[in-house]
Q: What sequence folds into this?
């Protein structure tokens, strides 16, 4: 396939498997709790473990891809995801649930880093913002699909059947990638001697990674603890998963709309700040209101608006020769935050005795984003302007 939009469709579907697998634990959390006698803190830890390997693999991920090739690296990543998922199916031990989650997460991290680079190869200088916005929406689309299908499968056939459904989707992703993806005929050449980041640029990239991580913590609380919140309020697990999935389906559209709005108004940071504040307000309302569906719809329409503007922050300070190491640092910070966030949220929910506390934690995370953005802008202002 040589059509770049067709290539983007292949990459979208393959990355969707990562989101589907990430959400598989939260989608059947009440069933896991019953099967393994797991608390909300245990579930939160298992959710967060999926992204833990990113702390170690984000920086070397690009070098691994350079040595093995893009397609081979992503195919290997999918294979790791499949092996980890099958390990979770094969054993009723909680220790194997943790091990399988870490193995799958290692593959997912490599997949995420490399596929972002693959999209850039095909769209650099050609609708890159639109392509990235579409690519990023594979995450909420995959999570929504997981919420819509896995609770029903798990309720009828058990947790193992839900896990096998995840393995089947990942298995289908491997031949799709092998057959459907080709590298562009002329790929941008990487500089032979990457430059080092100056101190202010390094700090700016770290804060940008913090903003992306903290924002995603707020977003993650909705689909990680939202279903459990509704089950606590008397909903069935299937109805709760379907209701929360509305957020993800609408977020898939609002993310693209946010990128377009940021470009059209030429005020991406205003979109970022207003989006985070409105999202935080709705998060605060959800556990305290009976109007669940209207609030869920509003969250879906608002929640992903800041995504594009946030992802543009590293590009503002990174030169072509520093993008590889800069994005490695950006994703390392992101994965550290995403590793800790769900575990902390689960512990808070256990202490408070309700999943509502996890959503309040997400609200606080969203409110921190404008504060971090202020710090980012202060540091960027100290950098010497390019000629």
A:
């Amino acid at each position: 396939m040589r059509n770049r939009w067709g290539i983007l469709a292949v990459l979208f579907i393959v990355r969707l498997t990562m989101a589907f697998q990430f959400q598989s634990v939260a989608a059947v959390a009440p069933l896991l709790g019953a099967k393994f006698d797991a608390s909300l803190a245990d579930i939160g830890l298992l959710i967060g473990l999926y992204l833990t390997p990113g702390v170690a693999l984000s920086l070397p991920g690009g070098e691994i891809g350079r040595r093995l090739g893009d397609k081979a690296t992503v195919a290997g990543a999918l294979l790791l995801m499949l092996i980890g998922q099958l390990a979770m199916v094969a054993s009723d031990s909680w220790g194997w649930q943790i091990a399988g989650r870490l193995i799958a997460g290692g593959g997912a991290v490599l997949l995420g880093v490399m596929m972002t680079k693959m999209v850039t190869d095909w769209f650099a200088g050609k609708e890159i913002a639109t392509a990235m916005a579409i690519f990023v929406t594979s995450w909420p689309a995959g999570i929504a699909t997981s919420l819509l299908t896995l609770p029903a499968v798990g309720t009828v056939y058990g947790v193992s059947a839900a896990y096998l459904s995840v393995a089947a989707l990942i298995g289908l992703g491997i031949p799709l990638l092998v057959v459907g993806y080709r590298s562009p005929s002329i790929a941008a050449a990487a500089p032979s001697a990457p430059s080092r980041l100056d101190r202010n640029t390094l700090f700016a990239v770290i804060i940008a990674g913090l903003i992306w991580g903290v924002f995603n913590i707020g977003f993650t609380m909705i689909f990680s603890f939202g279903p459990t919140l509704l089950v606590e309020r008397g909903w069935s697990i299937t109805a709760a998963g379907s209701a929360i999935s509305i957020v993800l389906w609408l977020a898939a559209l609002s993310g693209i709309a946010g990128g377009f709005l940021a470009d059209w108004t030429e005020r991406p940071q205003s979109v970022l700040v207003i989006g985070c504040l409105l999202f935080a307000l709705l998060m605060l309302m959800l556990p305290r209101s009976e109007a669940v569906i209207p609030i869920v719809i509003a969250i879906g329409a608002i929640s992903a608006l800041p995504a594009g503007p946030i992802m543009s922050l590293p590009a503002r300070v990174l030169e072509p020769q520093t993008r590889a190491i800069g994005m490695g640092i950006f994703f390392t910070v992101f994965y550290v935050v995403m590793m800790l966030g769900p575990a902390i949220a689960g512990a808070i929910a256990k202490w408070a005795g309700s999943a509502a506390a996890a959503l309040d934690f997400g609200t606080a995370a969203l409110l921190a984003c404008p504060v971090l953005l202020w710090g980012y802008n202060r540091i960027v202002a100290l950098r010497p302007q390019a000629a």
About this structure: The first helix runs from residue 4 to 27.
